[in-house]
Write a structure and sequence with these properties.
Blueprint lengths: L1 H11 L5 H12 L5 H5 L1 H10 L7 E5 L8 H5 L5 E5 L9 E7 L2 E4 L4 E2 L1 H12 L12 E4 L18 E7 L2 E9 L15 E5 L6 E6 L2 E3 L17 H15 L3 E9 L3 E8 L6 H5 L4 H17 L5 H11 L18
Antiparallel strand pairs: 1-6, 2-3, 2-6, 3-4, 4-5, 7-8, 7-12, 8-9, 9-10, 10-11, 12-13
Length: 336
């Protein structure tokens, strides 16, 4: 009886489970032949660049073992950069170089590594060690994002990112993912990062979830994670909304970052976005998705489609929620 009552309560609140996500949204709206567009970060980046959408600059691509010799030439103009698998998932296989030191390289965590170690990492990526399905992969070398200073007090190392779930070009829910000491500086919830709900209308953060528990403060900085106004929120929403045309996929998770100099950038797209975003927002996806579907059905009867700006306005009009007054984060305290 307890399980039955729990299930009824979740259903009443519109909480989406994995079976509903797969059957009613992923399989229905995402055509299989379009998956490579989002599963391969190089293809995503190339399409975004062609469409004039902001992404971290691509420095070079390594496709074969023979191409590894080109690595030092590719990175010669840069002191910092990122090496990542084109078809990786969950942040695995990514190497972030923050600086040079005496002919070697300093990672973002401060570790000094040699060229040979980077060469070995590139070779591992090419072999498919980090790729979806274990298939041979390609390596991309790109601009290293420098997080906006607003995140210094509510994040531990690494780069925070923003996940926005988009249905048929309409944003339906957003979450800020904050790295922690436990996550190793990665914005990956399964590895111990924090998920913080974000109000779609205002871009103000809500309560957070960490290790499946509700929290109000970052475990390492001890600063509140709620009530923070994310800069240029309309810019994030506009980028996420435009990814429907970019990918052709109807149900996607758009991952974005806020660079100190370049502003909002698209990091990657996900055709099978996770469901923890509902915990971070204390709200279910189902009701919001149904509202979008009913709206699209009404538009079809009228014989019209909406622009990016109109879709963005619809989501911000219907999917906002009461939030605490926005604050400016305090100076970071010493990690606990």
């Amino acid at each position: 009886m307890l399980l039955w009552n729990t299930w009824k309560a979740l259903k009443a609140n519109g909480v989406m489970g994995i079976n509903r996500r797969n059957a009613d949204y992923v399989l229905k709206y995402n055509k299989r032949h379009l998956y490579p567009v989002v599963d391969d970060k190089i293809l995503t980046k190339e399409r975004a660049i062609a469409a004039g959408i902001n992404v971290p600059e691509l420095y070079g691509i390594i496709e074969t073992e023979k191409d590894i010799d080109r690595f030092q030439k590719i990175v010669a103009p840069y002191r910092d950069f990122v090496v990542k698998p084109a078809q990786g998932a969950g942040g695995d296989g990514i190497l972030v170089i923050a600086d040079r030191f005496e002919g070697r390289y300093r990672t973002v965590s401060g570790k000094i590594i040699s060229y040979e170690e980077i060469e070995h990492q590139i070779s591992s990526i090419l072999s498919g060690l980090y790729s979806l399905g274990g298939h041979r992969d390609r390596v991309l070398i790109e601009y290293r994002v420098t997080p906006d200073p607003i995140f210094k007090s509510i994040s531990y190392e690494g780069v925070p990112d923003i996940r926005i779930i988009v249905l048929m070009g309409y944003p339906v829910m957003a979450m800020l993912r904050l790295p922690t000491r436990q996550s190793g500086g990665k914005a990956n919830l399964h590895q111990g990062a924090i998920g913080v709900g974000v109000d779609l209308t205002t871009g103000v953060t809500l309560k957070g979830t960490w290790l499946n528990s509700k929290i109000t403060k970052h475990p390492d900085t001890t600063n509140p994670v709620d009530g923070v106004q994310l800069p240029d929120w309309d810019g994030f929403m506009r980028l996420a909304t435009s990814c429907y045309e970019l990918s052709g996929l109807g149900y996607i998770g758009v991952d974005l970052v806020l660079d100190e100099e370049k502003g909002p950038l698209i990091l990657e797209l996900n055709a099978r976005p996770g469901l923890n975003i509902q915990i971070a927002n204390d709200a279910g996806l189902t009701h919001r998705c149904h509202k979008v579907e009913h709206h699209i059905a009404a538009l079809k009867k009228e014989g019209r489609l909406e622009t990016v700006e109109e879709r963005m306005a619809f989501s911000q009009r219907h999917f906002g929620q009461p939030v605490p007054a926005a604050t400016t984060p305090s100076e970071p305290s010493e990690p606990a």
